[in-house]
Please model this.
Amino acid sequence: MWDGLFLQFYSYQYAGYINKMEQRLSISEITPLTTEWTCKVQAVDKFRPRDSRDQRVHFQTIIVQDVNEEQICVILYGDDIRRCDNLFELFETYLISTAKVRNPQPYSLHISQFEWIVDRFTIVESIQNNNEKEVPLPPPSRLSMISFADVAQQPSGVEVDLLVVVENCGVMQYTADQSKRFQEAIVMDRMKKPLFFTIWEYLASNEGAELLRQVRQLQEYPIILAKRIGTTKYQGG
Model:
């Protein structure tokens, strides 16, 4: 059985702005001293908004990467989190211009030398798949995806990414002591090998509910990317 630590749906919603800056740069070329720049990036991870440990800062982190697969964190604060709610969808391509560039904060993910702050002064343009002038970036090659055949061989504590088709999805359930809620789904890889997938708590109430709607009501078989997945032994009968 898999514990769904993080789940992202493929989404094809677009929002943004159409202005472009003249200087097109890669992530590594952009520093706090760089002015009037534009960088073409793809969102590869999107975390839920949260508070810093001292509860003083409410923020959201998105990881983006450029054509060279160099990565950097994009940070949103306060009202900008809601304003950008339809932006930075997983694997969608964007042009970001003149975001604030700074050193990572103590509560940030330190994946690069700098991080970008996107606010109401930042220009963000979504690149659609049918855009003839701006071609979206290809899917990233740095995902830690493995085949289903290798899942059982993964040691405890190792997290992987899995690209799967949802074959079936159950309704919300609760543990015996009623302390936790969860959903169980059957997912398949491209070899049509089925495995059980468990979605817990917040994910079950949100992404799990959407999976249930697509499978049961729309009779669709959504493709999902399950990220940072750990494995456990199946406890069912």
Notes: The mean pLDDT is 81. The radius of gyration is 19 Å.
